[in-house]
Amino acid sequence: METLIRPLIVIGGSLLITLIAGWLLDLLLRRVDRRHPETPLWGLLRRCRVPFQVVLCTGLLRGSYRSAGLLPEYAFYIGRILTLVTIASAAWLAVRIATAVVDSTYARYASVAQDDARVRRVRTQVTLIQRVVTAVVVVVALAAMLLTFPPMKAVGTSMLASAGVLGIVAGIAAQSSLGNLFAGLQIAFGDTVRIGDTVVVDKEWGTVEEITLTFLTVRTWDERRITMPVSYFTSKPYENWSRGGAQMTGTVFWHLDHSAPVDLMRERLQELLKEIPEWDGRGSGLAVTDTTPNTVQIRAVVTARNADDVWTVRCAVREEMLTWLVAHHPYALPRVTTSEAAAAPGIHGAQAGAAETPGAAGA
Predict the structure, then answer these.
(1) E strand or H helix at 146, and its extent?
(2) Which of helix, strand or coil describes residue 223?
(3) In angstroms, what CA-CA distances link 94 with 21, 27, 132?
(4) Least confident among 163-177, 194-208, 235-249
(5) Is 316 within the bounds of a domain?
(6) Which of 42-46, 174-178, 277-281 has the lowest mean pLDDT?
(7) Which residue has the higher pLDDT, 119 or 301?
């Protein structure tokens, strides 16, 4: 009877202590969060309740399962499983704590920062830092789990003896991966491209949606995702429209007849821009930039707060100006001349004289 009651007491007591400790921790974090609303750290730390309970429960069981006489014939395997679960849950708890600290730091900075470019820069950096910390914790946890097996200790000793050769081989084999890894760190702290930047890569326009240690995702205007290695952005040229600020200048072109009312179009452009909310009012202009035998090229310059707004302004100005020209100045639209061309004066007179003396050709 005692062999049955003692394990139940140990397991039940461990679970009870775990539940009480988790409840007390959550209660404490909620009270601290209410007293310090200026930082979201304490609210984010509440996500650590479950991994904390797993660590506590497995730790209690790991320390008392032998004295409780829990399945003594399988004591070795139970101890090994509890050790592995404890290491894994401790790594889980460490990742959750690191994530909460990083997210809290970014949220506090974003709430007080005025420069959107700096906010996106910090967001990119903290995201990559969080991924690096997660990767390091996972690697350390896996190494600790493997070292709990006695055969792995001998393997580890032999590996250390040939660490130089293995390092060279691993470096050659993982050259591309290591290049992307260092490129990701260079992007994060070199401030060349950030999450939220508007970029043009391989003639595709889009917004940087995600940056990891090895790849970068660009979301195009038509909701496609382009995944590229981060080394591309450190080895090849690309356009970053958000570098130095999100403000943009756009152009609109029309091909019209030579009789187009340019002065009236300038006045109409100012009227149109006042009716478009996306125009930021920084600047505008209209000028004749080129001419051909049949048409003239007229260019309008408009400004906006970002790439999306400048696209909207360009489309609106192009459409409204054409509508206005069709309604009030249709003569300004390009046309194809179908009348006979006027001959030069000398040629016209010679042809007329030849027509008056038809017998001259026979003579």
Answers:
(1) helix 116-147
(2) coil
(3) 18, 20, 13
(4) 163-177
(5) yes
(6) 174-178
(7) 301
